Amino acid sequence: MSSLTKNTLAGLREILTRGDASSVEITQDYLAEISARRDLNTFITVTQDDALASAKVADQIRAAGQASLTTGLPIAHKDLFCTKGILTSCGSKMLSNFISPYDAEVVSKFKNAGFVMLGKLNMDEFAMGSSNETSHFGPVKNPWSPTHVPGGSSGGSAAAVAARLTPLATATDTGGSIRQPAAFTGTSGLKPTYGRVSRFGMIAFASSLDQGGLIAQTAEDLAIGMQIISGHDNKDSTSALIEVPNYESLLNDSIRGLTIGLPDEFFDSRLDTRMQSQIEEVIRIFTSLGANTVSVSLTHVAEAIPAYYVIAPAEASSNLSRFDGVRFGYRAEKPIDLTDLYERSRGEGFGSEVKRRILIGTYALSEGYFDAYYKKAQQIRRLIKQDFDRAFSLCDLLLSPTTPSTAFALGEKSDDPVAMYLEDIYTIATNLAGLPGGSFQAGLIDGLPAGYQLTGPAFSESKILNAAHKVQQATDWHTHYPEEIRNV
Amino acid sequence: MYESVIGLEVHVQLSTLSKIFSGSSTSFGASPNTQASLIDLGMPGVLPTPNAKVFEMAVKFGLAIEAKIGKTSVFDRKNYFYPDLPKGYQITQLDAPIVGLGHVNITLEDGTTKRINITRAHLEEDAGKSLHNSFDGLTGIDLNRAGTPLLEIVSEPELRSAKEAVAYLRVIHSIIRYLDISDGNMAEGSMRCDCNVSIRPQGSKILGTRTEIKNVNSFRFVEKAINSEINRQIDSIEDGQQIIQETRLYDPDKNETRPMRSKEEANDYRYFPDPDLLPVVLDDAFITSCRNSLPELPESRKARYMEAYGISQYDAGVLVADRDVADYFAEIAETSGDGKLSANWVMGNVLADLNQTGRSISQFPVEANDIASLIIRIKDKTLNSKTAKTVFEALLSGEGSVDTIIKERGLVQVTDTGALRSVVDTVIENNPHQVTNYRVAAPDKQGKMLGFFVGQVMKISQGKANPQMVNQILLDKLSG
C-alpha cells in the first residue's frame, strides 16, 4: 500500500497544506490502489481522467493561494448520488445506461469545496439490501475477508474506505445502510438526522427514511465531511432550516459527565457473546473518560423491523414507478404495446429484491389493506419516536452494538430475505425516528471488525462525533486496516 | 318521471407563472417539452418544492365560497402508470384538502336563487399530454403541461338539471375570474369539467348509479353532454337495463356519451401521503392577508349595480358575470349617467357581438368611453335609435369617435322646427289623396295612418328627423 493512501482525510489535508504532496500525486496513488484492488468490486465507475483533471485544477488553485482547507482532497460517491455527465446506476440494470443530467446537492457541495471525485461506488440495487449482494454489478467483497460480505447497502463505500481506496465516501442510510457496512468493515459511518443533509439528487428508496451521510476512517474525518454537506437546501422541502455547528471544533470537548443510555432491548440473547464483550470494552472506555451509563428501555423497538418493512417498501413502490422505460433507463426491446413496455422494462430491469419490495409495498398500500399495514406501521413509528424521546430525557446518547454479529459469509443469507432483514435490528429504529446515528470501530472478532453504535437526539451529530472521537483518541481500533492484518 | 342528480368536478388551472412543484414556465402553446425541467420529467433523485403562490390562490377561492380553510393540508400521491405521468404518481390532496366545505348561490331560470354546496377544493399537479395522432404508429409525450397547478373544485350532487349545472359552472368561472386565479379558458383547457350524472324516480331519496363524463370543455357541451347522458340513462332504465358505474366521454359531433376505453381494469390508486412534501400549515396571518386582498365578488357587485344604476336583478346578473364586462358596463353607466340605457346597450349590442364573434371584452374594438358618448348623443337627441345603431356599426369598423362619425355621415338629428315644417308641407302637398282619406277617417284609424306620413318625412330627411317632433307637426298640420 502506498504511503499516501494510508492517511486519513485529516492527514491528507495536512499534507496538502504543508505542500508535502500535490493533489495530483494523491489522486494518482488512489487511482493506482483502486486499479490494484479491482477484486473487491468496490467501484462501479472510476472517473480517472476527470479525477486527474480536477486534481490538477486543485493544485493550480493552491499554487495561486486560493485553496480552501479541502481543496484537492479525494472523495468517492455512492452510485445513487446523481453525478452530471457520469453513469449513475443505483446498482441496477434499470439505470445501467443512465447518465445523469445534473449533480446531486451533496455532489455539488463537495465539488464546490474543491474535492476530487475518484468515482462511483458499488451498492445494493436501489439501496435495498444488507450485504451488497443485490447489485447488478456483482457483490462487493469485504476487504478483511474476501469470502465475507461488506454489509449494505453502502457496501462499496464502506469497503473502499476500509481498503484505503478513498479517504471519504458518501453513503446513504434508510434502515442501517451506512452503519451496518461501517461496522462490518471497521470504518466510521454517520447517518445524520433526517433533514440535516439534502436529499436532492439522491435516487430515492424510501423518502421519509433516506438520509445521505458519510463513511471514513475516523470521527474527525466525518466531521470534516459533515461540515460540507450539512444544511438547508431549498430544493428539498424536507431539509431542515437549522443552524449547522462547527463539527470539527466540537470534537475535543470533554465528555466528562456525558450520560450514555444502554437500551435493554439491544443487549438480549440474540447478541453474540463476543460482540457483547467488545461492546462492554467500549463502555469501559467511555466510563474511563468520565461518562456515566444508565439503562434505558425502547419498549416498541421489537416492532421496528415489521413497521419498517411496510413503510419503506410502500414508499419504494411509488418512488420506483418512474422507472417505466419511457424517458430514461432500461427499456425492453420491441414492446408490442404499452403494457408490454411497462411489464418487460420493469420485469427485466429490476432485480429480485427490488421486485420483492415493490410487491410488498404495493400490497401494503392497496385498498382494503392500507389501514391494517401502512397506517398501523405509522402508528408504531410514532410510538418508537416517543420511546426515543423518553430515553433521551434520561441520557445524552444511546450506545449499542451496530449489528448482532460480525460480517457474515457471501451467500449465507442471500436466499433468506427475513434473515437478511433482521441484520438491521439495531439500526432500523433510528431511521423510523429520524435520528442521527453513527457506527464506530470496536475492535476485531476472529479477524473481522465489530462496530458500536451511538444514537442521539435530532441534530446531535456533533455530540456523537465528539464522543466517538474521544474514544478513538483513547484506542487504536480505527487505525487497523485489512492489509496490515494480512501482512502480519 | 325521473329526477337527475348532478355533481361537477371542475379542474381550474391556476395562473401562476411557474409550475406547482418546479420553476418551469406554465405558459400555453410552447413547443413540446420546452417547458419541462428535470423535476417535471421525474428524473431520478429530483424532489418537488411547492410554489407558495398556489396556496394563496386556493385560500382566496376558499374564502370567496365561504369555505372552511384547511389550516393543515397534506399532499398525497395517487399512483398509476401512464406515459404522460412522469413519476408514475400524481401529487394531489386526498384526506386533508386546502379548502373544505363551502357554497355558492346560483340563479335559476325563474329568477330564484339556489345554494349549491361545494364539498372541497384541493390542489394537485396536472399531467402531460399524450399526442396519439402526431406520429405515425407512435405516441408522442409533451410534458409542458406536467406540473401545472390545478385547483379541483368538487360540488355536492345538488344540481338537478343540465341548466343548473351550467349556471353553477358559470358562477365558478365568474369567481375564479374575479379572483384572477385562472384565465378560465375552457377551449385551452384552463378550466375542465367532469360531470357526475345519475337519475332516480322523482321523490326517491336513494341515489342512482352514477356515470362520470370526463373533460367536457365548454359551457354549451356541459349542458348537451349532461342532457344526452340523462336521456341515455332514462332509456336504459326504461329498457330494463342497469346503469353501470363508468367513465364516459362526450362526442359533440354525435351529441352522445360513450364509455371511455378503460385504461386498465379496476384502478387502485394506492393513495398515501407524499413523504417528499411537508404538510402545508397556514397561519391566521396568512389567511387574513388573503382575505384582505380579496376583490369585490360577483354577488356583492350585482347588488351594488342594482342599487347604483337602477337595473334589474336579471340585467345585473348578466352584466357582472364577467369581471371585465362588469367594469366595462360600469364605466359606460358612470360616464353616460344612464344605467338603464347603458345596460340595454351593453347587453343588446356589445354582448351580442361577443357571443357572435366569440371574442372577449378585452378584444372588443370599441372603448367603453365611445359607447358612453353614443348614449349621451341619444339622450341629447342628436341621435335616434336608428342612427345610433348606424354609429355603433361604424364604431365597430373603426371609423373614429362618435362625434366624428355623426359629422362625417351627417347623422345629426334634424330638430329645427322650420326645416321640419317645410318637409312636412312637401309631404302633404305630394300626397293629397292620403291627406283627404286621413281627414275623413275615424280617430282610432288615424293613428295608424299617421305612420305613412312619418315614414315619408323620415325618407326625405334620410332618417335624421326627430320622430317626436315630426309627429307633433304632422298632427297640427293634418288636423288643420
Could you characterize what this model shows?
- The complex is a heterodimer of chains A (488) and B (480).
- Chain A has 488 residues and is of the alpha/beta class.
- Chain A has a domain of 249 residues: Alpha-Beta Complex (Amidase signature (AS) enzymes).
- Chain A is 38% helix and 13% strand.
- An 8-stranded mixed beta sheet of chain A has the order 4-6-5-10-11-9-7-8, sandwiched between helices. In chain A, strands 1-3-2 form a 3-stranded mixed beta sheet.
- In chain A, helix 2 runs antiparallel to helix 3 and helix 9 packs across helix 12.
- Chain B has 480 residues and is of the alpha+beta class.
- Chain B folds into 3 domains: 288 residues, no CATH class; 114 residues, no CATH class; 63 residues, Arc Repressor Mutant, subunit A, CATH 1.10.10.
- Helices cover 41% and strands 19% of the residues of chain B.
- An 8-stranded mixed beta sheet of chain B has the order 5-6-9-1-10-11-12-13. A 3-stranded antiparallel beta sheet of chain B has the order 4-3-14, with no helix packed on it. In chain B, strands 2-15 form a two-stranded antiparallel sheet.
- The relative contact order of chain B is 0.09.
- Classes of the chains: A alpha/beta (488), B alpha+beta (480).
- Chains A and B meet through helix 9 of A and loops of B.
